[in-house]
Amino acid sequence: MAAAPHHHRGHLVLLVLSLAAAFAAAADSSSHNITALLDGRSEYTLYNSYLSETKVCDEINSEHTVTVLVLTNGAMSSLVANLSLADIKNALRMLTLLDYFDEKKLHSLDAGSELTTSLYQKTGQAAGNMGHVNITDLRGGKVGFASAAPGAKFQSTYTKRVDTEPSALSVLEVSDPITFPGLFGSPSASSVNLTDILDKAGCKQFARLIVSSGVVKMYQAAMDKALTLLAPNDDAFKAKGLPDLSKLSSADLVTLLQYHALPQYAPKASLKVAKGDIPTLASTGAGKYDLSVVASGDDVSLDTGLGKSRVASTVLDDTPTVILTVDSLLLPSEQFGGAPSPAPALGPDADVPASAPAPETSAPAPSPKAAGKKKKKAKSPSHSPPAPPADSPDLAPADAPEGDAADKVNSKKNGGAAAAVSFAATVACIALPVAAFL
Q: What are the residue boundaries of the FAS1 domain, all occurrences included (predicted)?
């Protein structure tokens, strides 16, 4: 068979690539929403409300494969009775497993037991492997959950299935939380020394500025309510072309530092899913001094309108306060967008204003001395360097689940996933003849 003309092959390749891109976009758009899934289920209203208040819901939604162990209102009430929000957040993280477990898998564990990672372990706050969860198929058809701590008891047991999105999200009800000594007792945000934390995080220059300007008091007053601090690291103050901050008025410096804080609790996972402009402490309510978020995969950057700054690390996540480091100074366009950046004096001639140029026909001939001089141009505004892009049937624990029954229950819900698979098959069918032409 004669080879296809070159331009025909090119069109076919473009068609396949376009279909593949469309499939990838469709697959990406099928992310889950745990609070929406639990909404309307009256027995989990307290659990769901704390998912939102602590922002653990955003962490769950950003995971591609996850199992959420939920507590009824009664069990949740007992848990939160004497805990701070920070401790409640860690308890919810321990109940979130970074793997997919449904009823069938719980009753068919290799050797009857499995150790899996929790969301709490992923944060890096856990001592050793204390954030791992031991899942064991107990006698009598029960499945227990416990911390990986030596001698930990299986106080939490599987009760029933709540909902599933096969291979992506499994929501299971359990009897009790999963705890271990040391999980609770986090200090409140107001008791921490803010400048010490910033110094240890490599943000010493920023710490000095907020102290000298008095803005540190504004931050501390907001820490018990809600505060997200965006602290530039020391390297950010060494960036080439950075405006001379020493020439800012006291009021402008205060505004700049207020621009580096949000009057809300917004950890990195929450920023990743943020929509629209985000107000800062400097915002006026008229859309000025706001930030926008640019997210790509796990990278999150903040856009000021003049440049982007990548969110580098989490220094403190203690609900309702979070401290994040950023790679560059956040320069609001309202302050630095319309005028040249302050620059060091260039000598006596730099202070003499240039006279308006006369028409060329009447311009006097320059003197030899003047001809050798060129007027120095003011530096254009320089900004932070851009970051790299940047109710389903209940099953009792003793009942061994039947895969076919579960599939029937979920068939309607999984229609979108089936359509996506069918679409992928179509793309593959097109790709095969293209490969033959090539």
A: 190-330
Which structural domain, as residue segments, surrounds residue 121?
34-174
- Establish whether the linkage from the previous residue to 344 is cis, with ω within 30° of 0: no
287 and 202 share one domain = yes
Task: For residues 130 and 119, give the distance between their C-alpha atoms in angstroms, rounded to a whole number.
Answer: 12
Domain end residue (candidates: 174, 198, 233) = 174
User: In terms of domains, do 150 and 208 share one?
Assistant: no
Asked whether residue 18 carries a pLDDT value surpassing 90, the answer given is: no
pLDDT tens-digit series, residues 202-221: 999 999 999 999 999 999 98
CA distance 253 to 230: 15
Rounded CA-CA distance 363/412 in Å is 83
The verdict on 170 and 198 lying in the same domain is no
Q: Cβ distance 332 to 277 under 8 Å? A: no
Q: What's the CA gap between 360 and 154, in Å, rounded?
A: 91
pLDDT at residue 430, rounded to an integer: 47
Asked if residue 201 and residue 123 are part of one domain, the reply reads no
pTM here?
Answer: 0.61
CB count in 10 Å sphere of residue 81: 7
Count structural domains, the chain. 2
Pair 106, 200 in one domain: no
| 285 in a structural domain | yes
Q: How confident is the model at residue 141 (pLDDT cuts 50, 70, 90)?
A: confident
Q: How far apart are CA 301 and CA 334, in angstroms?
A: 19
11, part of any domain: no
Query: What DSSP letter does each residue of 309-326 carry, written as one string?
Result: EEEEEEEEEETTEEEEEE
- The residue out of 142, 174, 206 marking a domain boundary is 174
CA angle 215, 221, 226 (to 5 degrees): 110
Report the C-alpha gap between 30 and 36 in whole angstroms: 14
Are 47 and 169 found together in one domain?
yes
Q: Has residue 412 been placed in a domain?
A: no
Q: Is residue 197 located within the same domain as residue 152?
A: no
Tens of pLDDT, residues 27-81:
443 478 999 999 999 999 999 999 999 999 999 998 999 999 999 999 999 999 9
- The Cα–Cα gap between 46 and 91 comes to 14
Q: Are 227 and 219 in contact (CB under 8 A)?
A: yes
* Closest C-alpha among 135, 119, 113, 144 to residue 66: 119
| C-alpha–C-alpha distance, residues 416 and 411, integer Å | 10
